[in-house]
Amino acid sequence: MSETYIPAALRRLVIERAQGCCEYCLMGEGDRSIDFAIDHVIAEKHGGETAEHNLCLSCYWCNSYKGSDLSSVDWTAEGQIVPLFNPRQQLWSDHFRLEGARIQALTAQGRVTVYLLRLNAEERLEERELLLALGSYPCSLFSI
Ligand SMILES: [Zn+2]
Fold first, then answer.
1. pLDDT (tens digit per residue) in 99-115
2. Ligand 1 center from residue 31 Cα (angstroms)
3. Quick check: 54 and 30 in contact, CB under 8 A?
4. In a domain, 1, yes or no
5. If you measure from the C-alpha of residue 9 to the centroid of ligand 1, how many angstroms do you get, rounded to a whole number?
6. Model-level pTM greater than 0.70?
7. Residue 73 lies in a domain
8. Residue-number span of the structural domain to which 124 is assigned
9. What does the longest C-alpha to C-alpha distance in the chain come to?
10. What tens digit of pLDDT does each residue of 43-79 get?
């Protein structure tokens, strides 16, 4: 949710690296009617740089719900504050797994990310179920 100018070459690198996939919910850019965003994994207000190692591709919804947050509260662990999943430093499959279109958290970081980014909100699940049935979810980067 930053207004910082991201040079075209850097933007292109982020999109190509992610193969057009949202690095949080695994939606493909081509399957969304809304724009994808270049997300600062660590938001600029926390000192996150506009550089390759701190940028990821995010769909509009993940980017909007994440905002500039870095962490959330894991209520299954006595209200511990837990950092969000970091797609630059961690593997998606270490923290989440797909059960159909539903994103199941495997770790505390997965749990707070699913919660804060509302990854399994009803309308998002419905959209992913439809794409799953059409064979276009998850996007290619994450298909095995
Ligand atoms: Zn997303």
1. 999 999 999 999 999 99
2. 11
3. no
4. no
5. 22
6. yes
7. yes
8. 8-136
9. 44
10. 999 999 999 999 999 999 999 999 999 999 999 988 9
